[in-house]
Structure formats: structure tokens, C-alpha cells
Amino acid sequence: MLSSYSTQSLDFLLEILPDLQPFVTEQEYWFEIKMVSPSGWDFWVSSANTEITVGFAEYHTHFGWHEGDPTDDATDAAGFIRSLRTGQLMLSVWYRGEEYVGSRPIESIQEAQPKTWFQRWWRRKQRLQIKKWIE
Fold first, then answer.
1. What pLDDT digit, counting tens, does each position of 2-31 carry?
2. Rounded Cα–Cα distance for residues 118 and 116 (Å)
3. Order of strands, edge to edge, in the sheet holding 24-26?
4. pTM
């Protein structure tokens, strides 16, 4: 049976993004949503640890912390998910060879490019891959 936090946040999240309903599975106290984006990257949402975590490709982010307000957390998570799905946000993912180095959401490809000499030096042996919901 889902926790009170998970029940409330899932209800509110599905009210905002009802198309996620077919991908929901309920665990003991939390829910998971797992699917693959149209571009082929893994996408998931979880309410484990009494917070909402949204993952896309290698990146994940947290909404709420230790019993935050479930409706606020679901609203914030839904906003992030919508931004990914509409292309307003994409991911910059850095690799050293095939090894994952780091990632972050960005609004434009220019935003991902190193701007300072130190950033260019730090990224000199790394390659950038931009990951979008729809390629």
C-alpha cells in the first residue's frame, strides 16, 4: 500500500500528466513510472524516500525533501517533465571516452559549451552529447 505522500503526489502528478498512467507501478510504499522517451532514452519517476525523483538518460533530480508537500512536489516535477517533453529543456551529458562524467539540464546547446579558460581546460579530453526527449 502506498504511503500517504506517494498516494497524494501520484494523484496530483497524474492529474497534470494523465498520459503517464499506463506506466505506473506501485511498490510497497512508493510508486515508479518507467518508460523510454521517443528518442530512446530511459525516463523514470519515483516517490521513494518521500520525495519525487525524476530521471532522464543519465541525469536525475529531486523534488521535495523528507516529507515535503506532495502537491508542491508533484507540481514542480510535472513542470520539469513538461519542459523535457516540449524541448524547452535538454541534457548536456559529458563523457571521457565511454565513461560518464556528468550531466545537467540546459535550455540551449550554447549553454552547454565551456565559456571560461578553466572550463575549456577541464573539458578538453571530454566529449559532449546533447540528449533530447525527441531527437
1. 999 999 999 999 999 999 999 999 999 999
2. 5
3. 24-26, 31-36, 42-46, 52-56, 59-63
4. 0.93
